[in-house]
Write a structure and sequence with these properties.
Order of helices and strands: HEEEHEEEHE
Strand content: 15-25%
Shape: globular
Oligomer: single chain
Length: 123
Amino acid sequence: MKRFFPALAIGLALPAMTALAAEPAMEKNGMLVDAKGMTLYTFNQDSGGKSMCNSGCSEYWPPLKAAAGAKAMEDWTLVKRDDGSMQWAYYGKPLYTFVQDKKPGDMTGEGKMGGAWHVAKTQ
């Protein structure tokens, strides 16, 4: 007679589920979107794994924040912001949303500030 141990099954499944849930963004039609489906952007002024969008800038372009204890993985890295918080980056490019995007699929930030902001695309 075989016994089933639900707690063991859950314990074995949790690491796999955690790995799947850890990706900070998703691909949709070749673009990156956050968990709410909001378009993600990159900023031309960012370089060397550093965000140049701080203070007032980040009020309009909120960074894609990383939870405490988040770990870099494959194409995803972490950037330490000036305020000490952590932000997700894709291939080293920090990611942001845009406050004027009101619903999933909006891309009103493309080309803003003289072409400095771009929709983040998958590689």
